[in-house]
Automatic annotation (TrEMBL):
UniProt organism field: Lentilactobacillus raoultii
Family: Belongs to the transcriptional regulatory Rex family.
Protein name: Redox-sensing transcriptional repressor Rex
Superkingdom in the source lineage: Bacteria
Oligomeric form and interacting partners: Homodimer.
Length: 210
């Protein structure tokens, strides 16, 4: 079974499982039932069983799953042993926070290059990461074989920067701007609108909270 054969919905849950199994591993736990796992990761146990069956990891009735063998398997599927370099575009407040965020601690990702237009920070090292001027974006992405970028520029700059990144061969964009980006079909965009998320949460608390 390779990552391509796994349904998208299942693939999206893999990092959740992986993170929790790591925690179990660190606390010295060797096995877990699908019911326990369901409670911990908030995914129902039938879904977990179906997800795991795609990997041929069939839990034994009354025994559950072996934590270590699942971890080894997920590590391989998620390519955790392979470090993926990611670029960050827009080193403002949020950009700085993300540069300081330790993605690598429980993942396979690190920000290895940043881009900005501000003369005060370009051609310098910010939080351990080199900041390149925006006109170098496409070239550097190609040169450094970076296929994923995090977008933390102001909204008005988002589409133009995206076009440059696409020209540089980018395949995935984690978009922190509220803009809906236009990209070719083979480029994936994952939108993270923090303001929207927070407002949704507040709305639910105000309207449906106890
Ligand atoms: P944040 O929105 O992350 O809190 P901020 O308020 O500090 O950031 P913004 O004006 O949103 O600042 O800009 C974020 C960063 O994007 C800044 O470092 C800015 O220099 C940079 N930036 C602005 N325009 C562009 C552009 N066209 N290309 C690349 N970077 C840009």
């Amino acid at each position: 079974m390779t990552a391509e054969n796994i349904p998208r919905a299942t693939a999206k849950r893999l990092p959740i499982y992986y993170r929790y199994l790591n925690i179990l591993h660190d606390t010295g736990k060797h096995r877990i039932s699908s019911t326990e796992l369901a409670e911990a990761v908030q995914v129902d146990s039938a879904t977990i069983r179906r997800d795991f069956s795609y990997f041929g990891a069939l839990g034994k009735r009354g025994y559950g799953y072996e934590v270590d063998s699942l971890l080894t398997f997920f590590k391989q599927i998620l390519n955790q042993e392979h470090l993926t370099n990611v670029a960050l575009i827009g080193v403002g407040n949020l950009g700085h926070a993300l540069l300081n965020f330790n993605f690598h601690k429980d993942g396979n990702v690190r920000i290895s290059a940043a881009f900005d237009i501000d003369d005060h920070i370009v051609n310098k090292i910010e939080d351990g990461v080199p900041v390149y001027p925006i006109p170098e974006l496409a070239h550097q992405l190609q040169e450094q074989q970076i296929q994923v970028v995090i977008l933390t520029v102001p909204s008005k700059a988002a589409q133009a920067v995206t076009d440059d990144a696409v020209a540089g061969g980018v395949k995935g964009i984690l978009n922190f701007t509220p803009i809906r980006l236009s990209v070719p079909d083979d480029v994936l965009v994952q939108n993270v609108d923090l303001t929207n998320e927070l407002q949704t949460l507040i709305y639910f608390i105000e309207n449906f909270g106890k």
